[in-house]
Amino acid sequence: MNAALHHLWTPLSATPLLWLVVTLAAYVIGRQVQKACGGSPFASPVLIAILIVGATLLGTGTSYDTYFAGAQFIHFLLGPVTVALAVPLAENFALVRRHLSSIGLALLAGSLTSVISGVGLVWLLGGSRSVALSMAPKAVTTPIAMAVSDQIGGVPALTASLAILGGILAAIIGRHMLARFQIDDWRAHGLAAGVAGSGIAAAQVAALDEVGAAFAALGIGLNGLLTALLVPLLAALWR
Amino acid sequence: MTSAMLILVGCQLLGELLRATFQLPIPGPVIGMFLLALALGLRARRTGNDRTPAPLKPAAEGLIANMGLLFVPAGVGIIAEAGVIRKEWLPILVAVAGSTILSLIVTALVMHWTLRPTHTHDTNGEGRTS
């Protein structure tokens, strides 16, 4: 970096504004790339933005803490958007009430599958206990996943990364995977996205279908509730 | 717009207060989501109209449409965890991919199978074996 640039960079890199702009710009680029790819789920704007910002941080030698001081204003909105999911949920209450037993069964089966297979696979492949425990709550929405991870002895930051990875994967392959099983029902698709991929997969479904959005919101909320109650119990048994 | 933001942040605050008061293991925003859904449901029953009132609906839809952006700051945290991920990349990758795909399929299949009878109003439906 030459002297003039360095002169500009040093004060800028410490203000929250710079990293706020970088995050927004990276996401806008991600969206443009997805549009250019004909809306393909493989060009996930979240993944593209994470890669751009990550590369920028590594390239400039900026610490994650410095970055987060700016990006936290975006991160904060995760709370209000979680609350906002009540809107598609409430508008489809009648639909949800009609299928309450299906939803309960699918939720329980999907949630247990996620926790047991996640912990089991780490254990089978010789991963450490703290990685296995960080894996357990990774299917639920990031703020819940981090809180549960902390409670059972996992690493919250690792859980957040895993939750994002899983969410991106579910968003990318969800439709193809379920199409292969001949499931074309938005209720099943939405709930599965919410239970297995939380917010990121739900965002993908919500953009496509309103009923899907309602069931995804329900999946996120109920799986968050179930996981917050169930995982600490299961973890207490595994000592 | 401001009143919609007040409703959303207010429900979140209420959720946080309930969580702190009763030592609930569920995060505040999720409690807030159920509170708002309950309030909207009660309002719909009273007015007989299940559409969400004007200022709240576009604000909620706008936030939800851009939800992906909100995961970027936490997602970038992966670089801070690079050490563990490099050391245990195989169990981590296999477990994330395996459990996500399994859970996705199991949830959707159970939902699909249990919905089918009420959906078609017959139980001898063809294609049950598929």
UniProtKB/TrEMBL annotation, chain A:
Report the coiled-coil segments: none
Q: Which Pfam families match?
A: LrgB (PF04172)
Extract one GO cellular component term from the record. membrane
How does this protein sit in the membrane?
Multi-pass membrane protein
Entry's localization field: Membrane
State the UniProt keywords alphabetically.
Membrane, Transmembrane, Transmembrane helix
Q: Which residues cross the membrane?
A: 12-30, 42-61, 67-90, 102-125, 155-174, 186-207, 213-238
**In which domain of life is the source organism classified?**
Bacteria
Q: Which PANTHER family match?
A: PLASTIDAL GLYCOLATE_GLYCERATE TRANSLOCATOR 1, CHLOROPLASTIC (PTHR30249:SF0), PUTATIVE SEROTONIN TRANSPORTER (PTHR30249)
What is the name listed in the Swiss-Prot or TrEMBL entry for this protein?
LrgB family protein
Which source organism does the UniProt entry give? Answer: Gluconacetobacter asukensis
TrEMBL record, chain B:
Entry annotated with the keyword Membrane: yes
Transmembrane stretches, by residue range? 25-42, 63-83, 89-111
Its membrane topology: Multi-pass membrane protein
What name appears for this protein in its UniProt entry? CidA/LrgA family protein
Compartments annotated for it: namely: Cell membrane
State the GO CC annotations. plasma membrane
Please name the InterPro entries in this protein's record.
Answer: LrgA/CidA
Organism of origin: Gluconacetobacter asukensis
Pfam annotation, one family: LrgA
Keywords from UniProt, A to Z, are: Cell membrane, Membrane, Transmembrane, Transmembrane helix
In terms of domain of life, where is this protein from?
Bacteria
